[in-house]
Amino acid sequence: QQQVKQSPQSLIVQKGGIPIINCAYENTAFDYFPWYQQFPGKGPALLIAIRPDVSEKKEGRFTISFNKSAKQFSLHIMDSQPGDSATYFCAASYGGATNKLIFGTGTLLAVQP
Amino acid sequence: DTGVSQDPRHKITKRGQNVTFRCDPISEHNRLYWYRQTLGQGPEFLTYFQNEAQLEKSRLLSDRFSAERPKGSFSTLEIQRTEQGDSAMYLCASSLDLNSPLHFGNGTRLTVT
Prior knowledge:
The complex is a heterodimer. Chain A has strands spanning 4-7, 10-14, 20-25, 30-38, 45-50, 56-59, 62-67, 72-77, 86-94, 102-103, 107-112. By secondary structure, chain A is an all-beta fold. Chain A is globular, with a radius of gyration of 13 Å. By secondary structure, chain B is mostly beta strands. Chain B has no helices and 11 strands. Chain B has strands at 5-7, 10-13, 19-24, 31-37, 44-50, 53-57, 65-68, 75-79, 88-95, 103-104, 108-112. In chain B, a hairpin with a 2-residue loop joins strand 5 and strand 6 (53-57). Chain B is globular, with a radius of gyration of 13 Å. The N and C termini of chain B lie far apart (33 Å). In chain B, 35% of the residues are buried. Classes of the chains: A mainly beta, B mainly beta. Chain A binds chain B through residues 6, 34, 36, 41-46, 49, 89, 91, 96-106, and chain B through 4, 31, 33, 40-45, 48, 56, 91, 93, 95, 98-107.
């Protein structure tokens, strides 16, 4: 019940495409859902986060879609660029806190020129 | 650079040796966290501090692991009698408060031979 399941494991898109990464959770107590981006040899960096009172949030080219009834959320990257090639992790936490994050297993994204 | 700083970046040790890692959080961040990331997986929560108090430890943190944060500033993570299964990236993160985003360092990669 504490898991966050992420798919796909890897994804290849052409420059300008819109990769979509999906996550599903079971614990209905989760109330904070961030996405992190990680480049090789670096720590994860926060991209965008959402709380369950909204169904969508946009920041620049990144959009989170949130479906509370289905217990799913996804990351969309508009107009993807080769520089977006990285590993993306979804995560979740509860109690309004942002600290004890439970991470998904990651999606390795490659954006081809 | 005013981000989270971790030292060393890489550590190779022989099984049975003790190792210690250091983390310097972003100044004024009173919460500090340790996570562990193995290859192909998302980070897993280990423990966290509010100022100098260690508030929670994950079941992943065996008796061989000890973390400290003297004076509520930098933190150290020590692993005694290392095992090959301890090989991982150890990530430190900090946040201003319970509801602020986590900022990760670039980690210490431990290899136990």
